[in-house]
Specification:
- The chain has 372 residues and is of the alpha/beta class.
- It has one domain (4-339): TIM Barrel (Alpha-Beta Barrel).
- It contains 14 helices and 13 strands.
- The chain has helices at residues 38-49, 81-92, 132-151, 166-171, 186-189, 191-204, 226-238, 257-263, 270-279, 294-302, 313-317, 321-325, 342-348, 360-370; strands spanning 9-11, 14-16, 20-22, 54-61, 73-74, 98-103, 115-116, 128-129, 156-161, 209-217, 243-248, 285-287, 308-311.
- An 8-stranded parallel β-barrel has the order 3-4-6-9-10-11-12-13, surrounded by 7 helices.
- Strand 12 (285-287), helix 10 (294-302) and strand 13 (308-311) form a beta-alpha-beta unit.
- Helix 1 runs parallel beside helix 2 (81-92) and helix 3 runs parallel beside helix 6.
- The chain is globular, with a radius of gyration of 19 Å.
- Bound molecules: flavin mononucleotide (FMN).
Length: 372
Amino acid sequence: MDRLLFSPLSLGGTRLPNRIVSLPLYLAYPREDHEVDDLVLDYYDEMARSGVGLVVVENVTVEPCGLGSPRTLLISEDRFIPGLARLARTIQRQGIPAVLQIHHAGRYANRPDRIAPSPFETWGVVPRAMDQGCIDRVVQAFAAGARRAREAGFDGVELHGGTGYLLPQFLSPRTNFREDAYGGDASRRMRFPLEVLAAVRAEVGSAFTVGYRFLADEYVPGGLTLADTLPFARELAKAGITYLSVMTGCYDAFQLPRYVEDDAKEGFMVPYAQAIKQALPGIPVVAAGRIQSPDTAEAILREGMADLVGLGRVLFADPLWPRKARGEIAELINPCTPGCLLCLRRVKEQKPAFCGRWPRERRERFLERVGG
Ligand SMILES: Cc1cc2nc3c(=O)[nH]c(=O)nc-3n(C[C@H](O)[C@H](O)[C@H](O)COP(=O)(O)O)c2cc1C
C-alpha cells in the first residue's frame, strides 16, 4: 500500500512533495549579532536534504525586546534580509519549500526591557505591561517581519503562537489580566493575536502562506486548555490562516511532572491536533510530539487526525528518519531519548545544541567546531 506520508500536499499556493515537516527547533546556533551564520546554514541544509516535505525555520524575532536569547535570529530591520535570503535559498535549493517562523518572546524574553500584556512576574523579572502605543508597534513589527521574510524569498511565515510566548500570553487568562479592550473575556483576549494576523495578511496578501504555531493547552493550572483555544482556532480560520501547527506546553510547564510524563509518550500532542482538525475540517493541521515511528506517522494521517506530521527532536536525533521511513536506507531509526533534554539544556545555557544520540564521532566534530 502506498504510504500517505509520502504523498504530496498543497499548502496555500505551495506544493509539498510529502507530508513530513521539519518543525522549528531553536538550537542556539546564530551568533550574537543575530545574523545567519554557517552553523545555521549547515543545519538547515541537512534538514532540507533529509527528505522532509517542508522546513519551518526556528523562531526569528520581530523586534529586539522580544529576543528569547542573545543568540537568536532577528528580522527587525531590512539589513537582515540578505542573510535570511541565503537561508531560504539553502533550503529551497533542495526543492523543499521554506517557511520562516516570526516571533516575540514577551515575558519570556531574555532582556531587561521585556514587555507583556500584564506585569506577570517571570523568572524574577516583572515585565512592563504594554500600552496601546507598544501594542501598535509590535503588531507592525510582525507585519514588517512578514514582509522581510517574503522579500528574503521564503514560501511563507508561521506566527509563533506556541510555547507560551507573547501571542498566547494575551490569550491566556493566567497571564493577561488587562482591563482594556485586550483583556477580560475570551474574545477580548484573542484581539491582539488576531490583530497581528490581520496586519500580516494586509502586508503579504491573501495568497502568501501564513501559518500559526498553535498552543492548544498550556499544561499549567489555570492556563489555556482546548476549551479556550478551540474557539480561537475558529477565529484564526475565519481570518485566513493557511495552516495550524499544533503543540502543547509552555516554559512554566516543562518541569512539571504531568508534562515530563506525557513528553515521554509517542505522539503525545496528537490528540490536540486531532481535536483542532475535527473542529476545522478545511484547515491543514500539523501534528507533533515525539512521533518516533513511521507507522505512528502513517496512522495519524490515515485516521485523519492531521494532514501533516511534524518532527522536531526526532529529526534532530536522526536526520535520516524520512529516508529510513521510505525504505531508502535499510537501517533502524535512531530515536530521541525520552527524558534526555540535552538539546534543551544546551540551549538554556546559550550553547549550540547537539544530540546525545549522534554517533560519537559526529558529537566530537561538532564540539570541536563550536568550541565546547
Ligand atoms: C531545543 C528545542 C527548541 C525548540 N524551538 C522551537 C521554536 O523555535 N519554535 C517552535 O515553535 N517550537 C520549538 N520547539 C518545539 C518543537 O518544535 C516541537 O513542537 C517539540 O519539540 C515536540 O516535537 P518533537 O517531540 O518531535 O521534538 C523547540 C523544542 C526544543 C526541544
